UniProtKB/TrEMBL annotation, chain A:
It comes from Pseudomonas fragi. Signal peptide: none annotated. GO terms for molecular function: phosphatase activity. This is Serine/threonine-protein phosphatase. Residues 60-258 form the PPM-type phosphatase domain.
TrEMBL record, chain B:
SUPFAM superfamilies: SpoIIaa-like. InterPro entries: MlaB-like_STAS, STAS_dom, STAS_dom_sf. Signal peptide: none annotated. Residues 3-101 form the STAS domain. CDD domains: STAS_anti-anti-sigma_factors. This is STAS domain-containing protein. GO terms for molecular function: anti-sigma factor antagonist activity.
């Protein structure tokens, strides 16, 4: 009798303990989810050209979806999937989001962002945890999309009537040491109105009643049947429901339409001073030589330096876009001698970026010089930027005679610069460009 | 047993065979198959002939094995994977780390 009584006491005690633990766990999850939802949903996911579907607990299943504007008005979009579920998966999401938002805002490109994300995850995650990720830079102005896919299912670029698969070419983030990590991206033409669709493996791994997987073929049938791009995500969702009978809880999909920015980017807000001191009369000159050109992107540093000048801050996005174009023109067409006419059609694009990679890797000499000059002018001031390269130069008169055609895929750099900065001029030998930005009295 | 292991007569090769779903449920068994061996074998073969499915935690387990076997110096072969399993290994580009055939 005594034994029976003790047994019952033990059972009751354990029941209470389990209930207590369960409450505790549920509460922790609720708090953690609230934090992660905020991490995952700052940024520009709600922009009119982005549509997405994330099941309520997708993040807790390791899915992460982030979007943010670059200073020059492009959009960075990340869909990532951590191995494992629950808290362990969500922990990695925090540093990843941090790197994504802060580096995008400072004007870093995909390569630098990827290197940083990989190094950070490699450092903090245990060996058996990693993060599959697809990262995009959609540029309506440059009419292209840059893609890196490490371990995510094929994404799709829908361009005109043509569909191109964006296939994983890399190991996931957090697997390789920094010195062997491969940040090589693919660049494809993407004009305003074109779309990219990304998905997590929850979509193709959705299991039917007879243990069959939804799979890539069924997904592509839905893509084939789609008539209105804006309905695509709903159609895939419906197909999953029809296939399975109920919605899965770890499905993420996102679709972005290339769209010209209404306002060019958002002025960066990362200033440290209160606005009382501003350097107003100075000049600086940089020469970036081969070994630097191969692996270093000076733009974020130059932009940060220029943004110390208060009068230039409101023009930050335009300065960033112009400087970006001038720098990549000097590097690609000047130093590397690439012909932008190659960039016609998908294959041409691929060939162009392949050549860029090869020539950059083999580069021994050559330079890009950037000179900055800031001076007072009346109540305000002006900035003069000169970008010069060691290349052959180009036929300035011929290029200038071309109309400002913004629909071409190739040779867009010069048109974009002339459109954004009417005072732009090129040296007669085609090896240097000068642009000027001025500001009036500050309020 | 869903995970079986066998060491060659000279102790230089360990073969681990997985049966059924290769997922987190096999975590402990998989580790037991290689962790206690001394001296560690020079070469490890992971036989997936009877593995029906492989999820991302299985990929994690392969990474743990690789680390244990010497990281970049390791010699790990993943053999007899079905087309479905190979597809999963392919998406993650694990062929850059393992000898897969």
């Amino acid at each position: 009798m005594e034994r029976l009584w003790r047994l019952q006491q033990t059972v009751l005690q354990q029941r209470d303990l389990i209930a207590e633990h369960s409450d505790y766990l549920l509460n922790e999850q609720r708090v953690a989810k609230a934090v992660f939802d905020r991490v995952a949903h700052s940024g520009c996911l709600d922009a009119p050209n982005i549509r997405y579907l994330q099941s309520p607990y997708a993040l807790f299943n390791g899915d992460l979806l982030l979007a943010a504007y670059t200073p020059s008005g492009d959009t960075h979009l990340l869909l990532a999937d951590f191995t494992g579920h629950g808290l362990p998966a969500a922990i990695g999401a925090m540093p990843l989001a941090e790197v994504f938002y802060s580096m995008t805002a400072k004007g870093y490109g995909l390569a630098e962002i990827l290197r940083e994300m990989n190094a950070k995850l490699k450092r903090i995650l245990p060996v058996d945890m990693f993060c599959c990720a697809a990262l995009l830079c959609v540029s309506a102005q440059r009419r292209c999309v840059e893609v890196w896919n490490g371990g995510m299912p094929d994404g799709y670029l829908q361009s005109g009537g043509q569909r191109t698969a964006l296939t994983s070419q890399h190991l996931p983030l957090g697997v390789l040491r920094a010195d062997v990590f491969d940040h090589a991206t693919q660049v494809l033409p993407m004009v305003p109105g074109d779309q990219v669709f990304l998905l997590s493996d929850g979509v193709i791994d959705t299991c039917g009643p007879d243990q069959q997987l939804f799979g890539v073929e069924r997904l592509e049938q839905v893509l084939d049947a789609n008539r209105h791009p804006l309905q695509l995500i709903a159609e895939v969702e419906q197909a999953l429901r029809d296939f399975q009978g109920r919605a899965r809880d770890d499905v993420s999909m996102v679709q972005i339409t290339s769209q010209m920015p209404q306002l060019l980017g958002v002025p960066a807000t990362l200033y440290t001073d209160s606005g009382l001191c501003s350097p107003l009369d100075w000049s600086a000159s940089f020469e970036f030589r081969a070994a630097s050109l191969q692996q270093f992107n000076p733009l974020p540093y130059l932009l940060q330096l220029l943004m110390e000048v208060h009068g230039l801050r409101s023009q930050g996005p335009v300065i960033h876009a112009v400087l970006g174009e001038l720098y990549s023109n000097a590097l690609e067409h000047g130093v590397l001698g690439l012909d932008s006419r190659l960039k016609r059609g998908n294959e041409g694009y691929a060939r162009y970026y392949q050549q860029r990679k090869e020539r950059l890797a083999a580069l021994h000499d050559g330079y890009v010089r950037v000179s900055l000059q800031v001076e007072r002018a009346g109540e305000g001031g002006r900035l003069i930027v000169r970008v010069e390269d060691s290349g052959e130069g180009f036929d300035v008169a011929r290029v200038m005679a071309r109309p400002l055609d913004l629909d071409r895929l190739s040779g867009r750099g010069v048109s974009l610069v002339r459109q954004l900065c009417p005072a732009a001029s090129w040296g007669p030998d085609g090896r240097s460009a000068t642009v000027e930005f001025s500001w009036g009295a500050l309020a | 047993m869903a995970v079986t292991s066998e060491v060659s007569a000279d102790g230089s090769k360990l073969t681990i065979a997985i049966k059924g779903r290769f997922d987190f449920a096999k975590h402990q068994e998989f580790r037991n198959a290689y962790e206690e061996l001394s001296p560690p074998p020079a070469c490890v073969v992971v036989d997936l002939k009877d593995a029906t499915y492989l999820d991302s935690s299985a990929l994690g387990m392969l990474l743990l094995l690789r680390e244990h076997a010497g990281g970049d110096e390791s010699d790990i072969r993943v053999v007899n994977s079905s087309p479905d399993v190979r597809k999963i290994l392919g998406i993650s580009n694990f062929d850059k780390l393992f000898d897969i055939n």
